[in-house]
Each structure stands twice: as C-alpha cells, then as structure tokens.
Write a structure and sequence with these properties.
about 45% strand; three-stranded antiparallel sheet; alpha+beta
Amino acid sequence: MSEGNITKVLVPNKEWLIKAKDSKIGSISKNKKGYIFYSHGKTMKFNSLSEITTKFGITSFDTTQYTKNYDFIGNMSIYGYPCNTNPHDPMYSVKERIPVFTKVPKSKSCYCAGYYIINFKNTWIKSFCPKLITLRRHSYQGPFKTENEMDSAFITATETKL
C-alpha cells in the first residue's frame, strides 16, 4: 500500500473504508478483540488503529465524520426496519422488497430503511440506510432489522467468495 491512503467513516468508531485516491482498497471493522481488515475475500487482524495506520500508510483516520447520520434514538422505523432520520414519504418497494423513504419532503433521493451489506467490486461493506440507487447499482443482502443480523450475513459473505 502506498503512503497517502485515507479512510472514510462508514459507522463512527466501528467501520471504515480505506481508499487510495479514487479506488477502494478494503474495509476495517472494529470488534471486541480489536480490528479486522477485509480486502478481496481476505482478512487481517490488528490490535489497534495505530497498527493499521502504520501498515497501510493512512494519513487520515477520521473517527468522527458522519456521526450524525448514525446517531439515532427512538422508534424511527418503516415497516419494522430502523432508519436514521424522521422518514418522509415512506413506502415499500415491492420490486426490490425493501422499505424506502426520503429524508425531506418532496425529495427525489430515496433511502432504504434497515441494515444492508453491499458488494463493491468484490468487497462487502456494511451499510445503514443506504441510498436506493446504491442498492440498484450493486449486489446486496438485506434489509436486516438488527445490526446482529447484518453482522452474521457479513461474516458469511466475506468467508464465501461471491
């Protein structure tokens, strides 16, 4: 890996995407025992973020970005699937079999309630309330009602080469 790699926060203090320029290198997940790096169906275990920073030459490891999108409390849900904001125009997409909503009235950007795993160029990424267009462009699994269900699917997907 070259110097100058950066991370993008997927879930604050839990999930990151490692990028070099415009390409995705892999993802990092925090668990009870440390951190796991996933890339092209392979995994590496680390004890700390500093080990990862050294190994991959990461210049920016933001742990606070996008916190607001995932910081939700209460019973915000659509058809039993949690969402990260007060949903507007909730509907159920029969074609994709997923609950869909907008974040503001009359918006054209649709989001999907629940937890998902999405396959970006043979790398599975965990996602909470992704955009509908993202799911239409990539293979995915979900929706899941809980993070634990998503984690189980994620482990299965990363262990099996799809």
